[in-house]
Write a structure and sequence with these properties.
With about 260 residues, the chain is of the alpha+beta class. It is built from 2 helices and 11 strands; from the N terminus they run αβββββββββββα. Helix 1 (about 15-35) runs antiparallel to helix 2.
Length: about 260
């Protein structure tokens, strides 16, 4: 009795390992891109101030021409109430909208309105305070100081945040000095394009290698037709040899006598 052979596998071990390796590489690069361009915290000084220190408990922020804020200071006390005076010294309306998320820069592409902003995960973050003023307006409000950390504030009028109207306020800690363009800690520049190009290149390379590997090794691991449950199609009939003498009678060769 003929021994039953186990079915051949459709892919080799090398082929099965290549796919997860490529996927892991793409994931690592994607995580690096997110860390480069995602919601990140700019570096702030390590110095902190305990509640009850000599830090002020009030500040004045003025909106000025050129889509800028002019704060009286960038650090206030924490563990107490804070009085904020917002002045619109520009000729167009502005808002002072203070984030409720500590140590995080609001991405320039985040969805936002006068109530709050939406993070990358879809979470809505309400502003601690959001003051709208027409030109020449002034408003003073008092809020409970949030937890130790720095908080970004922006103008939520259309296009103002992306034009550079943002700043940071530290509660018991110094505010970062490296917030740049549109609220992101890192601008969209050549590093982002290099990372994006690397991801695309890895995907294309994976597709090309997968296609080449399949073309090269596919026939080696292909199951014979009879193993798949159907017979192999018959080939062309074998030619009948001519009779002795090389003469073929009219009408083709005759069958041999019985």
């Amino acid at each position: 009795m003929q021994a039953i052979q186990p079915p051949r596998r459709g892919r080799s071990t090398r082929g099965r390992l290549a796919i997860p390796i490529v996927v892991i590489a793409i994931a690592i690069v994607a995580l690096g891109a997110y860390g480069w361009y995602g919601v990140v915290a700019p570096e702030a000084a390590a110095q902190t101030h305990l509640p009850g220190s000599s830090l002020p408990s009030s500040l004045t922020v003025t909106a000025i021409a050129g889509f800028r804020f002019s704060p009286s200071q960038t650090e206030v006390a924490n563990g107490t109430t804070i009085t904020i005076t917002f002045i619109n010294g520009d000729s167009i309306p502005h808002t002072f909208s203070l984030s409720s998320v500590p140590n995080v820069a609001i991405p320039p592409n985040a969805a936002y309105n006068a109530s709050g902003w939406v993070g990358a995960s879809g979470t809505f973050h309400p502003f601690q305070v959001s003051i709208y003023l027409t030109p020449g307006g002034e408003n003073t409000t008092t809020i409970p100081a949030p937890a130790l950390g720095w908080y970004e504030y922006i103008c939520t009028q259309p296009g103002h945040f992306q034009s550079g109207m943002f700043n940071a306020l530290g509660f018991g800690v110094p505010a970062p000095s490296n917030l740049t363009g549109g609220g992101a800690a890192v601008q969209v520049g050549w590093p982002v394009y290099v990372i994006a190009g690397t991801i695309v290149g890895l995907v294309v390379l994976a597709l090309v290698l997968g296609f080449a590997f399949g073309q090269r090794h596919g026939s080696k691991y292909e199951m014979p037709p009879e193993r798949l449950g159907y017979p192999e199609p018959p080939g062309p009939p074998s030619p009948v040899p001519p009779p002795a003498g090389g003469v073929v009678p009219p009408g083709g060769p005759k069958p041999p006598p019985r």
